[in-house]
Design goal:
Elements (H helix, E strand, L loop, with lengths): L2 H11 L11 E5 L2 E4 L4 E4 L2 H4 L8 H11 L12 H14 L3 E5 L2 H20 L5 E5 L8 H6 L16 E4 L4 H6 L5 E6 L2 E2 L5 E2 L2 H14 L2 E5 L23 E4 L10 E5 L20 H13 L2 H20 L5 E7 L2 E6 L4 H10 L2 E2 L1 E3 L3 E4 L7 H15 L1
């Protein structure tokens, strides 16, 4: 099918909830994509940070096929090998105690919120269930995770929202302490606010929050849906902040393109959720878990060092453009934000796409770059060449 035919079907039969780009992707390899008309694109999006091993990865595809030919789904009423093997790799690599597997980032964050409130209820009783999150944060699109999100424009239309959230300014301990009443059970934060504009938190602030949580027996909840699974150059971003979370969520890149998510807990929280407290029909799905095992096997120390090196290479390349429309560059590893001035970030994204480079936007004025972790220097250089053509 060509693009007009696909678009016609979409407009006729699909809810129009997405502001789609006006191309239809047909195939890909590595970090390069082609649309249905045969045009080539360098991909700096990886499906919003999902396709960690790029496109047409043979080991990934074979693992899915092999598992599908054994059993595609059976539910958590039975044991299966793929999720158990995955947990045995993921848990010790993160320095945590146990894992829960679900389907998505929002679901993972919902589970983390439930765990925090149950931990506090069992230890302190009612009246201690408020979770402090940060302004400009984003935690998902369910009713509860929308309320956890610290951006006012998400708190519209879908009333009533789940209660029990207050918001503090990022990198401001005085703001956090102003919300620190006796009803608090946890602090929940992204170490890099992705949807909010690719804004890394200050290391000293994060460590101060972690110290406060220990002192008050609040759980430290780290949302690594976007920053986790190698995106910032370590398995999890928290490993670069010298903190020990009580719970950390993950999704996006874990299964390289299949729906998968979950959370990890430390020893203190290992037995909070017991049989019947939480669940997921598709959680730990054998095919998704088989794909995730391939991703985890790829994330060697050498591979992660390359992610850090390629991220630095890309940031330096953008800085070297000396473009008047760049107001700043920030991020970690291959999670990069480029401040945009002189035009909107959406206008710049569209101009880059027209010349063969796919990018994302975030916040009010940020071009967001989340290339596949396997992107080559050659593909980065092709992307930089497009940026030079458009942004100079």
């Amino acid at each position: 099918m060509n693009f007009p035919e696909i678009k016609s079907l979409d407009e006729s039969y699909v809810l129009q909830t997405y502001g789609r780009n006006q191309i239809a992707i047909d195939r890909g390899r590595g970090a390069t994509l082609w649309d249905t008309e045969g045009k080539e694109y360098i991909d700096f999006t990886s499906g919003i940070g999902v396709c960690s091993l790029g496109y047409a990865n043979e080991a990934w595809a074979k693992a899915i096929y092999d598992q599908a030919m054994k059993v595609g789904h059976i539910s958590n009423l039975f044991y299966t090998e793929p999720y158990a093997r995955l947990a045995s790799k993921l848990v010790p690599a993160a320095g945590m105690a146990a894992a829960f597997f679900g389907n998505s980032g929002a679901e993972a964050n919902e589970g983390m919120i439930k765990l925090a409130r149950k931990y506090s209820f069992e230890k302190y009783g009612k009246g201690r269930a408020t979770i402090i999150t940060l302004k400009n944060s984003f935690h998902g699109r369910t009713i509860t995770t929308l309320k956890a999100t610290g951006q006012d424009h998400f708190h519209e239309y879908f009333f009533p929202f789940t209660e029990g959230f207050r918001y503090a300014e990022a990198n401001n301990m005085d703001s956090l302490m102003a919300e620190a009443d006796g009803d608090v059970c946890a602090v929940m934060m992204e170490l890099i606010q992705g949807e909010g504009g690719v804004n890394p938190l200050q290391r000293e602030y994060v460590q101060s929050v972690a110290k406060l949580c220990r002192e008050k027996d609040w759980l430290l909840l780290i949302d690594e849906v976007q920053t986790g699974i190698g995106r910032t150059g370590t398995l999890f971003a928290f490993q670069q902040f010298d903190i020990e979370p009580d719970v950390v969520t993950f999704a996006k890149g874990i299964a390289g393109g299949l729906p998968f998510g979950g959370f990890l807990v430390n020893e203190k929280c290992r037995n909070v959720l017991r049989a019947g407290d939480h669940g997921s029909t598709f959680g730990g799905n054998p095919m998704s878990a088989a794909a995730a095992n391939v991703v985890m096997d790829a994330l060697t120390p050498e591979f992660l060092a390359e992610v850090r090196e390629k991220g630095g290479y890309l940031r330096k390349g953008i800085a070297a453009l000396n473009s008047p429309c760049v107001s700043g560059i920030r991020g970690m590893g291959l999670m990069i934000g480029v401040g945009v001035q002189g035009m909107t970030h959406k206008e710049l994204k569209d101009r880059l796409m027209a010349e063969g480079l796919l990018c994302l936007t975030a916040g009010k004025d940020t071009l967001r770059l989340l290339p596949p972790l396997v992107i080559t220097k050659e593909e980065i250089d092709k992307g930089l060449a497009v940026m030079a053509k458009v942004m100079k």
